[in-house]
Amino acid sequence: MMKKIYLILFVALAIISCKEEVKVSGKSKADNNESRKVGYIQSVTDEGGKLFIKIDYIDWFSDEEAGKAMKEDDPKINLDDMDGIPPDGYYIRNDKVEYSKIQVDANVKISIESVADQNNESATKVISFDDFKLLFSGENKSKYTKIPFWVDLKSGVIKTIDEQYLP
Fold first, then answer.
1. How many Cβ atoms sit within 10 Å of the Cβ of residue 90?
2. Could you tell me the CA-to-CA distances from 101 to 96, 98, 157, 159 in Å, in that order?
3. Whole-prediction pTM value?
4. pLDDT tens digits for 149-164?
């Protein structure tokens, strides 16, 4: 009888430990109450007082992981001269363009990278949702839809949006 109890406890523990969220870079493999993802934002809208973005999630790799991912995608790439790291230290994988429409919290915190001075040094700048929406309209749209943004979600709603600095 005691062996059965231990066996049941062992199986229950194994099941519980396997329920952890598995993440591959910016893409989440399991739904979780809170997550951080990265992707390209296609549009920013206000629909009857509710805020939304359309985003295409991507995989973001840095440093050695970036080199491994590049070689997986193209085995002919030679990064030996760069210690196995891509020139800018990152690699983006986007196997399939697939936009998701995600609601944005009315109190979202948005930060973008801006040129701070004549030395072209980057600085983080906090902006409003209305200003963010302007970045995705008119002439700006073609620039900002090619820049990755990190989004923090809680219960499926975006709480923060952060531009990923690209060298």
1. 19
2. 16, 10, 10, 15
3. 0.75
4. 999 999 999 999 999 9
**CB burial of residue 54 (10 Å; 0-12, 13-18, 19+):** middle
Q: In the structure encoding, which two tokens stand for residue 21, read together?
A: 């969220």
Query: Quick check: 61 and 54 in contact, CB under 8 A?
Result: no
- Rounded to an integer, what distance in angstroms lies between the CA atom of residue 24 and that of residue 98? 17
- The values of phi and psi at residue 103, to 5°, are -75, 145
Residue entry with tokens 């109190």: 107
Give 94's Cβ-side CA count (13 Å radius). Answer: 13
SS3 content of the chain, % helix, strand, coil (to 5): 25, 45, 30
